[in-house]
């Protein structure tokens, strides 16, 4: 299978980061094996919810994924999450074990930055009132920038000398320096293009002339490409949240921003497991005994709390936002689901009657041939078929709902 995307959840202590992680990894979909061969202590499996291909063909009852789950046509796709312990100002200098946690980030493909939008915790996560959460967004971006830039500039003299002696192109030299963050040549070129866009330039000055200001610009542009970020504005049910949300949206109009209440999500799922409510994750719909008589009767205190949640979160914002946070992270990575099947007539696998056993997330626009090789490995593919047995070229690309159900015909070993 292709490398799974890795999404890191970051934020200061007490921002609700751990609660967000718990809600994303407790979606009631933990059935079947995990596709990840090793899950390290600081990694967890979250579940992305999306419409499953089975619902297009009325085969919901036959859909039983190898990994994750499918419930009435809603697919729960496992996504690897990286739990980065709370970062504090000065992390790039090692404060609060910052260097370790920043190093952990280097393998991430995207970030979910959980921001305490209530303003009730300071930069170190200690209780306060009236704190401006704009500071958290600014300093976290700056901490990562200073960490990457510090790694780049500590040997800058030798970098420049090698660059000059080998007559390398800037993109080649930068790729070597950024390779520790998983950067390939294409990513570095995108970062350079981002630099042109950010600073309205049409070319790079010679690398040997770069000063600290120029290096800062390049690093900032690289981080936009390397770490696309979702801002999860958490604790939206707090009275001070509204004014802080407005300030953040005004300052970051082009950022992906999701409003969330992770603690509400965790509470509703707990009630659902206990049989007090029927809760449809990612929506405003919560049924109680008054709606479905088979549910347990709540006492007055619990009933009032559910009504308060409905008024302050669900009806007002449409959901707790937690499901949408993970969906947003996948969206900024521009990933779409692809379903490899063995039999294109029945959509089954190598055995049994269950359909759409596998689902992989692939970058939109990836050529079908590249998808085939990433899934099947180094094998000879005779043909690729889509729905209806239509032959698909290796040069065709995948998109949402297009070339996303594929069958690969291999050379026989006989």
TrEMBL record:
Signal sequence extent: none
Gene Ontology CC: one annotated term: cytoplasm
Listed name of the protein: OBG-type G domain-containing protein
Cited SUPFAM superfamilies: P-loop containing nucleoside triphosphate hydrolases
PROSITE patterns, per database record: G_OBG (PS51710)
Keyword Ribonucleoprotein: no
Gene Ontology MF term list: ATP hydrolysis activity; GTP binding
Pfam families: MMR_HSR1 (PF01926), YGR210-like_G4 (PF08438)
Ranges of residues in domain OBG-type G: 5-280
Keywords, alphabetical: GTP-binding, Nucleotide-binding
Annotated InterPro entries: Beta-grasp_dom_sf, G_OBG, GTP-bd, P-loop_NTPase, YGR210-like_G4
Species assigned in the record: Saccharomycopsis crataegensis
